[in-house]
Amino acid sequence: MTSDTLKKAREYEERVSAYIMDAERPAFHLSPRVGWMNDPNGFSFYKGEYHLFYQYHPYSTKWGPMHWGHAVSRDLLRWRYLPAALAPDEAYDNAGCFSGSALELDDGRQLIMYTGVQEHLSHDGVRRDLQTQCLAVGDGLEYEKYGANPVLDGKDLPEGFSRQDFRDPKLFRKPDGTFGCVVGCRTEDKSGSVLLFESDDGFDWHFVTVLDRCYNEYGKMWECPDFFTLGDKQILAVSPQDMSAVGLEFHNGNCTMFLIGEYDETAHTFDRQNVQAVDYGLDFYAPQTLLTPDGRRVVVGWMQNWDTCVSGPEDKWFGQMSLPRELSYRDGRVIQNPVRELDALHGRRVSYSDIPVQEELTLRGVYGRTIDMTVTVRPRSECGYTNFRMKVAAGSQHYTSITYTPLTSTLRVSRDHSGTNRDFVHVRECFVRDRGGEIKLRVVLDRFSAEIFVNDGEQAVTLTFTTPLSADGISFQSQGKTVINVEKYDITPQ
Ligand code: FRU
């Protein structure tokens, strides 16, 4: 039965989305059907299509009582909206249906697990909402909340773990067919942890272990965990809140990290061996992964940053997802590259080889705001060069710059001149591997975003901007002499 709250959201999104022009949205990144979007939810393959749900407040471009928006795609790039899937319409989720995940049950139904947030006034009169894990079961279009919700609540938590910060369940199937799920939780020292729960049938759950804990080392609460195998490693992905910068690896505020290690099935222990940022740009949070039918681990993130969410009074949508990215494990690091499906959207190709660069130059045919472009840079002489700068989304007043400095092996992105009129963070810098002055930058632009994949995916650097679409220029410049190869494809989704 569709509740009145869900019906109202569906009618609203149907009516108001008709006024949003496709040309005003990203072309191959998912944006909300209308209103506000944050985290990816329920990223899964089901009945021959990819499903991507999202944290959704249809009624404004600001965060509000959370619904789940819903879209499907056959190639992870061209999305078709379906009606909103969940609304906060039960006592146990009256303050929102927070993030969660989805997978297919043996009987062919799709199981969603999400965090139900219930309004709660503490004894001292302060509102401290309670968070529990809830289920909904559906057919890919309509979802019914489970009668015995919530399936995990405060009673299932070990001593000292928070009932107010207990959220974002990520489901997975174990090799023996039973179910596992990781959930973020706050511990008595106020910092984050990831709890592991298991179930034989997906409905009846029990606590297994604390997989890893923050101990106030990496931010505070760990949101949106994910747990999966990559190569011969186990990866625990977390999104810490209130992080303090650590060198150029992690930045302040909301961060994303891959904890790389090994999991002992019998002892239920996770041995964390390495820690790596997921993205080194400005706008990337709360990533979630799925396994494609052909065995690829693909991650998608919310292409935003909680501290810089600003929308104008005229805006009809806010927020977008990153490109889905294929993950692999190489030399101790998680590598990310755009899903190979992107190649099928390649249109007109322009390429140049061995172009000497010094003064700022443009290349005929190299422009655009929906493009996939690879630029390889190398020094033109043994003296090397001081820096190499590329401008994208450039017009007479605007540009976003990408600058590589070989001496310090740093890559810097700046949207200071992208047309923003807000004084928040617009610049980010990261270390890249020193390759004797050579660097390979794959830059994917989709109208209001740039995603940069460095040296075949060793790093991903993501940022959004609101630059007018008429600013579609690209230029190259170096202090000192460089030589570049450029291969650019227009992306033309049908
Ligand atoms: C992460 C997050 C989640 C929560 C959701 C609420 O961005 O804070 O922890 O479930 O957003 O919209």
What does this structure look like?
This protein is mainly beta. The protein has 2 domains: about 325 residues, 5 Propeller (Tachylectin-2, Chain A); about 140 residues, Sandwich (Jelly Rolls), CATH 2.60.120.560. It is built from 1 helix and 32 strands. The strands form 7 sheets. A 6-stranded antiparallel sheet has the order 22-32-23-28-29-30, with no helix packed on it. The protein has a 5-stranded mixed sheet with strand order 4-3-2-1-19. Strands 27-26-25-24-31 form a 5-stranded antiparallel sheet, with no helix packed on it. The mean pLDDT is about 95. The protein binds beta-D-fructofuranose. The site of beta-D-fructofuranose has 13 residues, from strand 1, strand 5, strand 9, strand 13 and strand 17. Beta-D-fructofuranose binds next to strand 1, strand 5, strand 9, strand 13 and strand 17.
Features:
Jelly Rolls, binds beta-D-fructofuranose, Tachylectin-2, Chain A, 1 helix, six-stranded antiparallel β-sheet, five-stranded mixed β-sheet
Task: Summarize, please.
With 494 residues, this protein is mainly β. The protein has a six-stranded antiparallel beta sheet with strand order 22-32-23-28-29-30, with no helix packed on it.
